[in-house]
Design goal:
eight-stranded antiparallel beta sheet, 20 strands, Glycosyltransferase, four-stranded antiparallel beta sheet, Beta-galactosidase, Chain A, domain 5
């Protein structure tokens, strides 16, 4: 428990002044406003005009661009639409079933029992998303479907005022779900307005407006990072939809500020999560398209979006799916290729239909590619986190991921959930990554779901065609004291990974996690592991160097939220200071 308090204190001390002010403001509002003798919900209702004509063409055109960029997922989205209409509400691979779609309610006990992450999606009406991604003509949805969609909104409007039961900026009105509601209902109205009756249209428009007024008052400066960019895109969409210049300016200013503060020089988002990079890049592309469509375009926004797209091109693995680094999973963001398609549709040139440049490392973000043929390694050689945004960081200094013949062989872990507990703690910890662990503790402090405190200040040396070297020291109270230097280089028959560890009275382990589609076999000398595909064909080999011994075990793999697979993990052992080394070979 003391470690948790220390980690919380360290996390707080690393926050920027703007974040601390935002946290204090949010806390004060949450504590004071519900206790005042005023009707907060009515205050916001009074700001909603009785009637207004939304500007829907720019949003409709942008939505169709998104649809065309995701044609490869259309079958999945159509299946999701059918499931929801049948009363099955699924997020994060967890399903809550109702009798039918019309009976879906966002606050029944079986919904409230879900994780906060699940509920934020539900309260954000993310079950509308596959609907507007699969149809763009009003005639493509039936009157029965519209009646079901209307029932969802009616249920919300009747029972979910702002700041009830001493809750403000909590539960249903957390800004993140407010953003999702604005995006989903504005896009829905932009596509299907002519098919909706007057009362339903009016309710949607008043609902979007009310949510936007609330969001404008409660931008998530205390959270920062990708949350701010979600706020920005929702304000831009609402500003265009309701023809409110103040929201438009507010959203654009947040985007411009984020463009200056939230990206490295190589175009990577500072949270260093490929999944969140795709999400924020999509939001920038949407803002660029919408603002330019109404002649309010910003040169700086297009430049940031272009740099973000070029980052995706350079990070793009041989199998065209994101590396599962730093809270990344499949199926949450736009697929990598869809994001590139989306960028092309708004005039940003990409290399989508050509092979990635083999010399495409990203030194500011700390991602380095080695290899120019079928065998490619991605090394994460960077500081563990930007100190003021530790929420999605994992502990993986010097981690390697391997592709052979376009297939993943050595992988990161992904993440199972955001709820605090042993599963999330393990997913973020050093033991779940392809790097060295000294002793039994972490090199930095981890606690709760998103707290992290500590830095490594690594020294990285790399030039194209040369070995990569990363070295850092760990020296803190409650941690083992040691130095770790990792060198990765191409050798005649594969890749050599050498770890020099200097420690006192501590053991050292070097782990390599194998993709679950492959099996691993340890030979009788404990110095060779053969990796075979599901047909028993040898694909790769790991050889321990200089007398290091290997063991073979299993570990979890979480490629999607709520989904777990078992996979092999190869471990090199050392009881004291010295060298841990392995050669990775491709087997033809």
């Amino acid at each position: 428990m003391m470690t948790d308090y220390l980690t919380l204190a360290g996390t707080a001390l690393n926050k920027q002044p703007r974040q601390l002010f935002g946290i204090a403001t949010r806390t004060l509002k949450s504590s004071v406003l519900p206790r005042l003798p005023i009707d907060i919900d009515r205050r916001y209702e009074r700001q909603v005009p009785e009637e207004f004509t939304p500007r829907i063409k720019p949003i409709r055109d942008n939505t169709i661009r998104l649809q065309k960029s995701t044609l490869n997922k259309r079958e999945i989205y159509e299946r999701d639409v059918t499931a929801v209409l049948n009363g099955n509400l699924s997020f994060l691979n967890e399903t809550v079933s109702f009798e039918d779609g019309e009976s879906i309610s966002v606050d029944v006990p079986r919904v409230i029992e879900q994780s906060l992450h699940w509920k934020l999606k539900c309260w954000g009406f993310e079950h509308l998303k596959p609907i507007w991604l699969t149809a763009h003509e009003p005639s493509e949805i039936s009157d029965k479907e519209i009646a079901i969609h209307r029932s969802w909104l009616d249920d919300w409007i009747e029972d979910h005022p702002i700041a009830t039961d001493s809750q403000y900026l909590r539960r249903y009105w957390m800004p993140h779900s407010v953003c999702l509601r604005i995006l989903n209902w504005a896009r829905y109205d932009s596509l299907f307005a002519s098919q909706l009756d007057e009362t339903f249209r009016r309710n949607i428009r008043r609902f979007v407006y009310k949510n936007a007024v609330f969001l404008s008052d409660n931008v998530e400066h205390g959270v920062g990072g990708n949350h701010l960019i979600e706020n920005a895109v929702a304000l831009v969409v609402a500003g265009i939809y309701a023809n409110e210049p103040a929201w438009l300016r507010q959203g654009q200013q947040i985007f411009e500020q984020a463009g200056e503060e939230q990206f490295f020089e190589d175009g990577g988002h500072i949270e260093r999560s490929p999944m969140y990079h795709l999400i924020v890049c999509q939001r920038f592309l949407t803002a660029v398209d919408l603002l330019e469509s109404i002649s309010e375009g910003s040169k700086s926004l297009r430049e940031t979006a272009t740099d973000g797209v070029h980052f995706i091109e350079r990070l793009r693995p041989p199998d065209d799916q994101i590396p599962l680094l730093n809270d990344s999973v499949f199926g949450e963001a736009l697929p990598l290729t869809s994001c590139l398609e989306y960028a092309q549709s708004i005039g940003i040139e990409t290399n989508l239909h050509s092979e990635p440049d083999p010399y495409r490392s990203l030194p500011e973000s700390g991602f380095f590619w080695l290899g120019t043929d079928d065998s490619q390694l991605l090394i994460t050689a960077h500081e563990i986190t930007v100190p003021h945004l530790p929420a999605h960081a994992h502990v993986h200094p010097g981690q390697v991921c391997l592709w052979i013949g376009g297939k993943r062989i050595l992988t990161d872990t992904g993440v199972f959930e955001y709820s605090a507990g042993t599963t999330r703690q393990r997913d973020r910890s050093i033991q779940s990554h392809n790097t060295v662990q000294v002793g039994t503790l972490e090199p930095v402090r981890l606690a709760s779901s998103f707290w992290m405190w500590g830095t490594l200040d690594p020294e990285v040396e790399f030039s194209e065609g040369s070995p990569l070297r990363m070295a850092y020291d760990v020296n803190g109270i409650g941690h083992p004291t040691y130095t770790h230097e990792r060198t990765v280089e191409r050798v005649s028959d594969g890749w050599q990974i050498t770890d020099q560890v200097e420690c006192k009275n501590e053991s050292a382990l070097s782990r390599f996690h194998v993709h679950p589609e492959y099996s691993a076999t340890l030979n009788s000398t404990d110095q060779y592991v053969t990796i075979e595909d599901n047909e028993g064909i040898p694909t790769a080999e790991l050889e321990a160097l200089e007398g290091n011994k290997m063991t073979l075990g299993t570990a979890p793999y979480h490629p999607e939220y709520g989904k777990e697979q078992s996979r092999a993990v190869v471990t090199l052992h050392r009881e004291d200071s010295g060298m841990l080394g392995v050669i990775l070979r491709e087997l033809n």
